[in-house]
Design goal:
globular
Length: 100
């Protein structure tokens, strides 16, 4: 019997990437809450990253969307790391088509 397919991927892979992912997801969470939306999905993805857990496809989509928004106005120090993380996140399969 074939084991069930697990599409989880461990992102980010460095402390710098973890920082950028944290800031991007926290920013997305705050925007969602400020808009009266449920930010719990962003909070869950943030908790997974902080715990060093792998992200499933839904978590990667949220991270990708959060990174796109964050990188539009990110501090210079976060841009290269953020673009690298965004590229790797997209390589592992997301449904967003925006590019930075």
């Amino acid at each position: 019997m074939t084991p069930p397919h697990d599409d989880s991927v461990r992102l980010p892979s460095s402390t710098a990437e973890a920082w950028v992912a944290h800031v991007a997801l926290l920013d997305a969470y705050e925007r969602a809450v400020d808009a009266g939306e449920d930010g719990s999905r962003h909070g869950e993805a943030l908790e997974q990253i902080e715990a060093g857990c792998a992200l499933d496809r839904a978590g990667r989509v949220l991270l990708c969307e959060a990174l796109v928004e964050y990188l539009a106005d990110a501090p210079l120090r976060d841009r290269a790391v953020g673009r690298t993380l965004l590229r790797r996140t997209r390589e592992h399969g997301t449904s967003t088509s925006q590019h930075v």
